[in-house]
Design a protein that fits this description.
It is a single chain. By secondary structure, this protein is an alpha+beta fold. It folds into 3 domains: 166 residues, Transcription factor LuxR-like, autoinducer-binding domain (Beta-Lactamase, 2-Layer Sandwich); 122 residues, Beta-Lactamase (2-Layer Sandwich); 65 residues, Winged helix-like DNA-binding domain superfamily/Winged helix DNA-binding domain (Arc Repressor Mutant, subunit A, Orthogonal Bundle). It contains 18 helices and 12 strands. The chain has a 5-stranded antiparallel beta sheet with strand order 2-1-5-4-3. Strands 7-6-12-11-10 form a 5-stranded antiparallel beta sheet. Helix 1 runs antiparallel to helix 2, helix 1 runs parallel beside helix 8 and helix 16 packs across helix 17.
Amino acid sequence: MFQPQNLNALVTSIYDAALDSALWSDVLARIGEFVDGQAGGLLAKKSNNKCVQAYFHTGLDPDYLRLYSETYSKVGPVAMSLFDEVEQIASVPQLMPYEAFCRGSFYREWAQPQGWVDVAMAVLEKSANCCAYLSVSRSAASGMVDEEMRRRMAFVVPHVRRAILIGKAIDFKQAEAATFAEVLDGLSCGLLLIDCCGRIVHANPAGNEILANADFLRSAAGRLIADDGHVDQALRDTVAAAGGGDAGIGAKGTALPLVAHDGGRYVAHVLPLTSGARSRAWAAYAAAAALFVRKAAMERPSPPEVIGKTYNLTPTELRVLLAIVEIGGVPEVAAAFGVAETTVKTHLARLFEKTGTGRQADLVKLVAGFSTPIAIPA
């Protein structure tokens, strides 16, 4: 049975992995121990095929890991399933008939020889072209995924998900002390470092711009204030809880909704900074929490050429793709380009074929998946 101090250490280690991705293998081992699982992984599944890649893992024999990468990832329950509701815990019987699972090559040739009978999975993040999962396998000795395992997974998953989201926003491992501020200033999202009393101790340029606008967030006598009273109280409670460490913030701090006066919607993610390696990395700022603020909308994508190369698009097809995102539907794009709607539809059909999508909305999501957290000079 996990003791409270061990549970706090587990949560702390999860957020430290947002600072240093090399820690994920150890974190997954701790999660496996907590939920009574024998092997774990952070997986990513491409939306346009059944390819599943294990980015971080624990409890896997290297030979079996190679077999998974080369062959069995394509026929496993993640690849064969349409399960994609974020943070919901699912096991094999929920993803596919268990009898069919036992008859398949994934179980007979890969899982069964390792002694696995079931797996608990949860979606951590979805984008237009990828879905990320936390997966923990169960051995025959532990039995099928039960309610206690689901309960414990449900406790862990929000923390893992928040760590993944924040880790994507900034790669702390590559930020040496001398260039730390430069890395923070390069983020396109607003970053505000807050002490446990709500005082702003540092803001990057995007964060300062948000404060200067004094719209949904502002500074009053050096303290961070949200325009909405309910959100302001939630923000105060979350930052105060962050001062007590990772366990104090719990799952409530995953996201705080913010609404500008013009109706624009933003979201703030809170990362506690008082535990583990983070306490050392941010010591110079005396901050209790980092607030990452971004607009709840598609950001500027990476250089369009990256999208074009990924899907082997012609220059005209790439131009139509970006126009669908920025201008609108077929009639609007045709009018903007001065061509017939049938011409745009022809290019659109090729885009659907090359990207594996079927709707214009899917193309918008696809481009959103290539957005970058780094500010791009005008």
